[in-house]
Design a protein that fits this description.
This protein is an alpha+beta fold. The protein folds into two domains: 40 residues; 197 residues, Immunoglobulins (Immunoglobulin-like). Strands 4, 5, 6, 7, 11, 12 and 13 form a seven-stranded antiparallel sheet that branches. The longest helix has 34 residues. It is elongated and about 110 Å long.
């Protein structure tokens, strides 16, 4: 036998259903835009590959140096660059790449943080049209990318005159200069031969920071042949 229809009970159920529908509509209204923004937010990705066009041999200069007389010259050097790509669905604004820390591999294989290294932003490659250093890239469109300088290595013969020298490092070995926005007078941006891990943060005004760790190897030897240098003299890869 069917239970009698209870108008009061069903009225209460209807009221709760209406209230639930209203609540859902409010939640959707409140969070829909934030959800869509999150879906369309820029997503930055850092790529480190020891090959053209990211890394190559070139010349630094011309610059003036006091030898027997004031001389204008240039120095052979290698540039190692990162590729910063936007894999999201909207333009990344005011993009920066920050070196949070540098660790060096010890004799036992562990990596120990260099407490003397000053965390700073890296420089974007090629600078601005007026020649000034670019630290915050104005923007990277979806599906596009931009090079960021990571390391510069000059010929050992030019170390001293370019302020890339360290007293404890033998004069015939190369030294790497991390391309931070300002070269500190303490020269803590200079890396002697060894294996290093650099912890990087790539971020934008409208994108969350992306953690990346790259491993850098500096053997210490200078090779004029670019292909050999990228096999025997240097190493660069993403490890995390």
């Amino acid at each position: 036998m069917n239970a009698p229809f209870d108008a009061a009970t069903w009225g209460t159920v209807g009221q709760w259903a209406a209230a639930g529908g209203t609540l859902c509509a409010v939640v959707v209204a409140l969070f829909k835009d934030e959800y869509l923004r999150a879906r369309r937010r820029p997503r930055l990705r850092v790529t480190a590959e020891l090959k053209l066009p990211h890394c190559h041999k070139t010349f630094l200069g011309p610059y003036e140096v006091q030898r027997t007389t004031l001389t204008t010259t240039s120095a052979p050097c290698y540039y190692l660059r990162l590729w910063i790509a936007n894999r999201g669905k909207s333009r990344a604004e005011n993009v920066q790449v920050f070196v949070a820390s540098v660790l060096q591999r010890a004799a036992d294989g562990t990596f120990v943080a260099l407490s003397s290294f000053l965390p700073m932003n890296l420089r974007w490659s090629h600078g601005r049209p007026d020649g000034s250093t670019e630290v915050f890239a104005e923007g990277i469109a979806p599906g596009m990318g931009k090079h960021c300088d990571l390391l510069e290595i000059v010929h050992p013969d030019n170390r001293a005159e370019l302020n890339r020298d360290l007293p404890e490092s033998p004069k015939d070995l190369v030294i790497g200069a991390v391309q931070v926005e300002v070269f500190p007078n303490t020269r803590t941006h200079l890396l002697t031969p060894g294996v290093y891990r650099l912890n990087l943060l790539a971020a934008a005004a409208n994108a969350r920071p992306m953690d990346t760790t790259v491993e850098l190897t500096i053997s210490g030897q200078w090779l004029d042949d670019e292909a050999r240098m990228f096999v025997e003299g240097l190493g660069l890869k993403t490890v995390a």
